[in-house]
Write a structure and sequence with these properties.
- By secondary structure, the protein is of the alpha/beta class.
- It has one domain: 3-Layer(aba) Sandwich (Rossmann fold).
- A hairpin with a 4-residue loop joins strand 3 and strand 4.
- The radius of gyration is 17 Å and the shape is globular.
- It starts with a helix and ends with a strand.
Length: about 200
């Protein structure tokens, strides 16, 4: 099933990033819906066909814990609004990715809870894959040429978490699931995606 869906997407987009143009593809979906795996498989398919591409993982660009935990805001708000520097990423990534030769971004190190700036060179043409949570939020959604949404039931996604993480059910209820519900209600990501993959 995964391979079929990846092949279907690759067939749609493989000829788009040509003539010194980049084509930006989003892989959206809620937590543990399979976004990283899907993006990886898509990259393998594009590489096999000698199509230039670059993949960005939005979880590489979250902010330090002190900026997203215990801020005085509700937990779901911290997760949705503060997990990333939303406006900063719009300026440094999304506004630059189509026409600039490189982008300079903060990359998060989970072990040290620090961020380090790195400059990424982009292919002159080809496909830009961006995978991550809440990609169709109002600040980012207009920068994509094609959007995929991975639709996976909450129960299935929850079971993909490690048992020790699942034990803290209140964090899922108050932080993750409320933010997901807000995103679904506000942005209707499945309805607005170009392609929906059932998970």
């Amino acid at each position: 099933m995964l391979k079929e869906e990846v092949d279907k997407l690759a067939d749609v987009i493989k000829d788009k990033g040509t003539d010194h143009q980049r084509y930006v593809v989003g892989i959206d979906g809620l937590s543990r819906s399979g976004k990283t795996t899907f993006a990886s498989e898509l990259g393998i398919r594009l590489e096999a066909e000698n199509i230039l591409f670059r993949t960005f993982h939005m979880d590489d660009h979250i902010v330090e814990r002190g900026k997203r935990y215990d801020t005085g805001q509700e937990e779901w708000y911290e997760y949705y609004r503060l997990q990333w520097n939303v406006k900063g990423l719009r300026r440094e990534l999304f506004e630059e990715i189509r026409n600039s030769s490189q982008v300079t971004l903060d990359f998060y190190n989970n072990n040290s809870d620090t961020r380090q700036r790195r400059t990424i060179t982009l292919p002159e043409d080809g496909i830009i894959i961006i995978e991550g949570l809440f990609l169709q939020r109002s600040e980012w959604k207009d920068y994509f040429d094609y959007m995929v949404y991975l639709d996976c039931p909450r129960e299935k996604r929850f079971l993909r978490e490690k048992e020790a993480i699942r034990a803290n059910i209140s964090k899922f209820i108050n932080r993750y699931w409320k933010a997901e519900e807000y995103y679904i209600d506000k942005e209707q990501p499945m309805e607005n995606a170009d392609m929906v993959v059932e998970g």
